[in-house]
Amino acid sequence: MNPIDHYQAIKQAHIGLVSVSVALFVARGIGVQMRARWPMRAAVRWTSVAIDTALIGAGGLLWWMLSLDPRRERWLLAKLLLVLVYIVIGSLALKRAPTQGTKALAFVASVVCVAFVALIALTHGTFDLGALWQRFRA
Ligand code: HEM
To answer: How far apart are CA 78 and CA 51, in angstroms?
Structure first.
């Protein structure tokens, strides 16, 4: 059987994992803001790492199946860079930012960032980021 036969199933798994991952991140971020302890418990942290690893793995499989080149597919490049930003500011929001205020700021920025990642994923066929950027600069 050709791996591409599983494309739709892997894409659905990717989207499902994205939903669970973002929901857990938002719940943990709110928990951290309320000074709860559960968001940083080992079981919760490892569940989150497992979901995120599977999500990135499924994304990587889709990437491989479509033979995409991020140097040509600017939406994928933008998505990958924003995922990196999301990981860094997400870790600031949950743990590394020094104060409750900066954690809150990082939390809001992470939610905006992941919303952009989803927007890019959903609109890349119809929405030309490069054209928008050129118009913005003109
Ligand atoms: C938080 C991170 C991520 C979010 C929110 C996200 C979101 C999504 C969504 C909503 C779709 C479905 C788009 C559609 O219905 O057409 C999608 C597809 C896809 N994602 Fe992700 N994704 C994330 C991470 C990643 C990563 C890390 C990779 C690569 C390693 C990746 C690669 C892909 C690919 C190749 C597709 C298929 C696009 C297509 O069918 O045209 N994603 N993603």
So the answer is: 22
How close is the Cα of 33 to the center of ligand 1, in Å?
29
Kindly report, residue by residue over 4-47, the tens digit of the pLDDT. Answer: 889 999 999 999 999 999 999 999 999 999 999 999 999 999 99
Dihedral in degrees, nearest 10, Cα atoms 71, 73, 74, 80: -80
Q: How many CA atoms lie within 13 A of 37 on its CB side?
A: 2
- CB of 65 closer than 8 Å to CB of 55: no
pTM above 0.90, yes or no: no
Q: Is the C-beta atom of 84 inside 6 A of ligand 1?
A: no
Structural domain spans, the chain = 3-137
